[in-house]
Amino acid sequence: MVFILLNYKTFDEGTGQKSVDIARACRDVSESSGIEIAVAPQFADLFRVSSSVDIPIFAQHVDGIGSGSNTGQVYARCLREAGATGSLINHSEKRMTLADIERSLLSLYENRMRSVVCTNNVATTAAAAALSPDYVAIEPPELIGTGVPVSKANPGIITDSVEAARKINKKVIVLCGAGISKGEDLKAAIELGAGGVLLASGIIKAKDPKVALEDLVSLI
Ligand SMILES: O=C(CO)COP(=O)(O)O
């Protein structure tokens, strides 16, 4: 089953009430297409979105900490209480050490939440797969936010990542991201062996996000 995860980053177009409007567009397109579309709004919008729209909601980051003296850190249980059912870990814009990635993953397992570990190349994909997250998302940093789709600019990084992850842990699903926005980008990603995509600006900053989402799923 194809999985689409929409990362809101800190774009104004997905901040505050707009986070709910975009989540509603995702729900509508998910219902009409039958494709799972999840959203990753900012922390402070998680509860707002989960209170309004019934789709899978991810945080953009989680720390591997528990209850206690951890001011300013992001606690998995609090994310779950806010309505999140999963989290990104190690996004290129929020890099972590391997040890911290593992701790964050453990905090998600403990709270029965889904995990997406982002990676920047084939070697880090293999390392992430060894930690058994639900998904690894390969995103070449140089293509993020460019509108140039990874599935066209660097298809080899997707096929090599899928192969590397499969060798280490067959259960891990590989997503890809960076520059994905069109139906042809998603179709190419699936043909290259990805289980779905992680994307942001092409939808969040589109004039009409719902129309952009309809295009994204149109060839699946
Ligand atoms: O970083 C990304 C998603 O997490 C990709 O961003 P863009 O879709 O804007 O290239």
Share of β-strand residues: 15-25%
Strand order of the largest sheet: 2-1-8-7-6-5-4-3
Radius of gyration: 16 Å
The end-to-end distance, rounded to whole angstroms, is 11 Å
Reported for the largest beta sheet, the result is:
8 strands, parallel
How would you sum up the global shape? globular
Structural class, by secondary structure, is alpha/beta
Order of helices and strands: EHEHEHEHEHEHHEHEHH
Instruction: Output the CATH topology.
Output: TIM Barrel
Instruction: Give average pLDDT, whole number.
Output: 98
What small molecules does this complex bind? Answer: 1,3-dihydroxyacetonephosphate
Which architecture would the CATH scheme give at its second level?
Alpha-Beta Barrel
What is the number of helical segments per DSSP (H or I, 4+ residues)? 10
CATH superfamily label = Aldolase class I
Poorly predicted runs of 5 or more residues: none
CATH class: Alpha Beta
Number of domains: 1
**Would you count the extended β strands for me?**
8
Percent of residues in helices comes to: 40-55%
